Amino acid sequence: MEKVSYDLVEGLRSFQNLWIMVSEALAAQKIPICRASPGWEWYGFYIEEKKLFVGVYYQTPNAIQVTSECKIKVSDGAKLDLGVVEFGKWRNFLFLDSEEVHFFSRSIPSQAQCIEKFIRESVDYAKANII
């Protein structure tokens, strides 16, 4: 157990803003949300008839993931152009703190565009190659 700091307040506001941005990105891409899914280990949305999940796992809060939630066409360790397959699931990550993305230093419109692009590329790839 660790001490709770003042970062909690702004962190929760920022987390809520992220989910508004993700839901708006899904709407902009005309991808309906089947169900919001808050859990003990994650927060996110089921999409594509619950075949995919877009969310954050609390152990890796620096990454938005698109994850398969159904039987997939590829096996663990397969060489892919996008994402990875582990434990029978395909995953693609947007690391918000990566040098390539610079997510936190972007403007609000640029952050929204980054998320939209990530979701569109992930969903299109998954539909064509994974699920």
Explained architecture:
The chain has 131 residues and is of the alpha+beta class. It has a single domain (7-129), classed as Aspartate Aminotransferase, domain 1, CATH 3.90.1150. The protein has helices at residues 7-28, 108-129, and strands at 33-38, 42-47, 52-57, 63-68, 84-86, 89-95. A hairpin with a 5-residue loop joins strand 3 (52-57) and strand 4 (63-68). The chain is globular.
Provide a concise account of the structure shown:
With 131 residues, this protein is of the alpha+beta class.
By CATH, the topology is Aspartate Aminotransferase, domain 1
Major pleated sheet:
6 strands, antiparallel
Task: Write down the overall mean pLDDT.
Answer: 95
Measured as a percent range, the helix fraction is 25-40%
Q: What is the CATH-assigned architecture?
A: Alpha-Beta Complex
The N- and C-terminal alpha carbons lie at a distance of 40 Å
Strand order of the largest sheet: 1-2-3-4-6-5
Q: How many structural units, i.e. domains?
A: 1
Query: What share of the residues does DSSP label as strand, in percent?
Result: 25-35%
Q: Structural class of the secondary structure composition? A: alpha+beta
CATH class identity? Alpha Beta
Which residues form runs of ≥5 with pLDDT under 50?
Answer: none
Number of strands: 6
Element order: H for helix, E for strand: HEEEEEEH
Number of helices: 2
Radius of gyration: 15 Å
Q: Tell the overall outline.
A: globular
